[in-house]
Write a structure and sequence with these properties.
heterodimer, A: 6-stranded mixed beta sheet, B: Immunoglobulin-like, 28 strands
């Protein structure tokens, strides 16, 4: 990328050898899909009309986004217009100066192929109650431009000084939280998992999730946690660690939970069967056609914990349409009209049974 | 470790553009203190932890790590200073422009010191699997069960004297580690990807490396006894730690004994269910992973079992079949499918069919009826040992009744439309039973 002052009288534009150096450069990464560059330069303007050539051959700039702001001295120069020469990645600004002056300008533009990713690394303790959480910024520059010294801005005003060259990738530690509380959750969703493991050739795993709250109580909560890949490890009690799994987390605003699906448990087994489905309360019209009936349904689920530790299983059951629960031996809460959520404590090496007896209404 | 995995250290006093410095001179090649491999079986994934002692100088230090011809995922690289934490600041990890399979850590040290560090990364190409040999006693009431693990290394890297741990469990992965290892640049690139031609691997170099690896294997001393495998649970996974260290050159596999249970009581279970197995009778070996069966200390990783039977006192064997089975938690029952057999016979015959109890609508059309089927089931054990047979029958309608008679053993309603008869048969015994299934249709189902 180059910036040059041009003699106004020249027929063809001639780039000057003495280029104004970049002063401060800002790489603004607070937008999830666009990178804004702001660079400040000092232009030596002559009295009268000046042409300033800005070219970016080989650099992926969004031409419509280029802006020039005259910073100082105030009121001594005026930006008149800009024009784009044919078949070139360049533009020419025309600036009128009331007198010869060293003008400080800020050029801003959206630059493609330079961005940032966020990654996380969690190290859970052996009891799986707390986690050391690290976040990294991955700065990727494939824009065609070297930034030898730039201030990189993230959201919330966070910034740091960084060099990033063309085709360079950098991993920078953003933060470390030593002991963030985590909650481990096992979830069986009857709409997503097979009901009868015996009929499946492979193990039916119960998804295991860690929940991390983005709150001050968790040592977080300062700002939203950006989306990114998280890899979770666990201390093994022998000075080492094992890898538990990885997930992609969405944006986690302050006060919300980060859900990290790490893997499947094969030591919790849910075997669910429908034991009854009969039509009852049948109403017919005058022609004898059925217009209304209920189905009398019974679901039985055996919940087995083969682990030597207790587990709290979240069980999601679905009853579509209009329904009434006749009896249920485990407390539940409604997630929505058709989904029921059960929280079942399973002691080590134990099993429990859930029996739901309900009627569903059918209108024809 | 093969020369392709290099770890170099250079100390620089001034921060400067990487490109201006060029590649650094090698100041120190620190010796590796230890390496630990945690190998997973549910995915092509291994966590490697490599410990070395660096000599760092006060000021800015640059640490170069390169991994040409290996399957390391560069996005997983992490360096931890194991001592002097307050004096050490890992500034960043740089993947410099126009380089491949090379990373550069910048490390600020408050003083000159010898610094133990741990480099950890995920790699592809190391795997393990469990397999089992079962030997039944001649009366098939007990089985000697031997478990083995086989570790294979095709990672491109020779791991010498590595502490090896094996993980049983299903890990959630977003990407295949092998794909991440081949991706350049490590985190991909924004925007369009330019086309690249990958250089072909130098086969002569590979052959040379294999020969080196073979020499390394030959240097190993034969152990005085089989190694023990320590087992422990972590989170949802089970960890097998192999005693001592192992050298596993690239391209080699190792088989290690996992456990032996000399006398596991087993039940010869034969199953018949037309909807699942057709007309065949399928043989299962059934036992439980618990103390009563000489097991139950750890879960049993899924794998293949080859079952044999002792024929005589001289120890001659017959092959009974093989089964691929699932992970078995402690306390759970397992049924090993040994395949269809012809020495146990089940015949289900429909002996009579009739309809009954019609209902008619106002137009005189039938809109309700029952179907009644009489079945006879014959179960024949032609073997010279007692067996258990499970016969499952499915009703074609949601509303039905069943009347049974004869020697049907135990009866159980499994679910909405499935029932199960379980019979015990002595050697050479035949049993028969009958049942009448009434199914309701149309308005009769209301």
């Amino acid at each position: 990328m180059s910036l040059a002052l041009l003699p106004v009288s020249a027929e063809a534009r001639i780039k000057l050898a003495a280029l104004p150096d970049r002063a401060d450069t800002i790489i603004r990464l607070d937008h999830p899909s666009a990178t804004l560059i702001e660079e400040e330069r000092v232009l030596t303007l002559q009295k009268g009309l000046n042409q300033v050539d800005f070219s970016w051959e080989g650099v992926s700039i969004d031409a419509d986004s280029i802006r020039l702001k005259l910073l100082a001295p105030a009121g001594r120069a005026t930006l008149l217009n800009l024009s784009f020469p044919p078949k070139e990645a360049s533009l020419v600004w025309e600036i009128h100066a009331q007198e010869a002056v060293e003008a400080q300008v800020r050029i801003s533009y959206l630059l493609h192929n330079i961005d940032r990713l966020i990654t996380y690394r969690g190290l859970a303790d052996k009891d799986e109650t707390r986690m050391q959480l690290k976040s990294f910024l991955i700065l990727r520059n494939f824009s065609g431009e070297d930034f030898l010294k730039a201030t990189v801005f993230l959201d919330g005003g966070r910034s740091f000084s960084q060099q990033i060259l063309h085709e360079e990738t950098k991993q920078i530690l953003l933060f470390t939280k030593a002991a963030t509380p985590i909650r481990k959750v096992w979830t069986f969703d009857a709409a997503k998992l097979p009901w009868d493991p015996e009929k499946i050739e492979t193990n039916v795993g119960i998804p295991v999730t860690y929940q991390v709250e983005n709150t001050p109580a968790s040592g977080l909560g300062g700002s939203g946690l950006w989306p990114g890949k998280i890899r979770v490890f666990q201390e093994d009690g022998h000075g080492g660690a094992i890898f538990l799994g990885e997930d992609h987390t969405g944006m986690v605003p302050v006060g919300e939970k980060m859900e990290i699906y790490i893997g499947d448990s094969r030591d919790l087994v849910v075997t669910q069967r429908k034991m009854k489905e009969e039509r009852i309360n049948i109403r017919r019209n005058k022609s004898g056609r059925v217009v209304l009936y209920d189905t009398d349904e019974v679901i039985r689920a055996k919940l087995e914990n083969f682990k030597d530790r207790a587990a709290r299983l979240t069980l999601i059951q679905h009853i579509p349409g209009e329904w009434d629960m006749e009896s249920c031996n485990v407390e539940y809460k409604r997630r929505d009209a058709g989904a029921l959520e059960f929280e079942v404590e399973l002691a080590p090496r134990s099993h429990r049974e859930l029996v739901m007896h309900y009627h569903r209404r059918h209108v024809r | 470790m093969r020369k392709t995995l290099l770890f170099c250290l250079a100390a620089l006093w001034l921060a400067a553009p990487w490109s201006a410095q060029g590649k650094m001179d090698l100041v120190t090649l620190p010796a590796r203190e230890s390496v630990e491999l945690t190998i997973y079986n549910s995915a092509d994934l291994t966590l490697a932890r490599d410990r070395r002692v660096l000599t760092v100088k006060k000021g800015l230090n640059r640490l170069q790590f390169s991994w040409a011809n290996t399957l390391i995922d560069p996005t997983s690289l992490e360096m931890l200073a194991l001592g002097h934490n307050a004096d050490i600041d890992v500034l960043d990890l740089i993947f410099p422009p126009r380089t491949n399979q090379l990373g550069l850590w910048r490390l600020q040290s408050a003083r000159s010191a010898r610094l133990p560090v741990e480099i950890s990364y995920l790699t592809s190409g190391l795997s393990w699997r469990a397999f089992y040999l079962g030997t039944l006693k001649s009366d098939e009431t007990k089985m000697r069960l031997e478990g083995f693990v086989r570790v294979t290394n095709v990672s491109g890297e020779d791991y010498e004297e590595a502490k090896v741990r094996l993980v049983v469990g299903k890990v959630h992965l977003l990407d295949r580690i092998a794909d991440l290892a081949r991706r350049a640049p490590p985190y991909g690139r924004p925007g369009p990807v330019p086309s690249m031609v990958r250089p072909a691997a130098d086969e002569s170099v590979r052959r040379e490396q294999v020969m080196e690896a073979k020499s390394a294997m030959a240097r190993l001393q034969a152990p005085a006894r089989p190694k023990e495998i320590v087992k422990e649970g972590l989170s949802e996974y089970f960890l097998y730690t192999i005693e001592g260290t192992e050298t596993i050159p690239h391209g080699w596999s190792k088989r290690l004994p996992s456990f032996t249970a000399p006398e596991v009581p087993v039940v010869n279970l034969y199953k018949y269910e037309e909807e699942r197995y057709g007309s065949a009778v399928v043989r299962f070996l059934s036992f439980k992973n618990d103390a009563a069966h000489g097991l139950g200390q750890t879960p049993i990783p899924g794998g293949q079992l080859k079952a044999y039977r002792n024929l005589d006192a001289a120890g001659h064997l017959s092959f009974e079949g093989q089964s691929q089975f699932k992970y078995i938690p402690v306390g759970e029952k397992v049924e090993l499918n040994l395949g269809a057999v012809e020495d146990v016979l089940v015949q289900a015959r429909l002996m009579n069919f009739r309809t009954d109890r019609y209902l008619f609508d106002s137009d005189g059309n039938i809109d309700g009826w029952n179907e009644i089927r009489d079945y006879e089931i014959e179960v024949k054990n032609t073997r010279g040992i007692p067996i258990r047979v499970e016969v499952r029958r499915n009703a074609p309608s949601a509303k039905w009744e069943l009347e049974k008679k004869g020697d049907f053993g135990t009866y159980e309603k499994v679910d909405l439309n499935t029932v199960k008869f379980t019979l015990s048969l002595k050697a050479g015994e035949t049993k028969r039973f009958q049942y009448t299934l009434t199914t309701h249709h149309g308005r009769r189902a209301d």
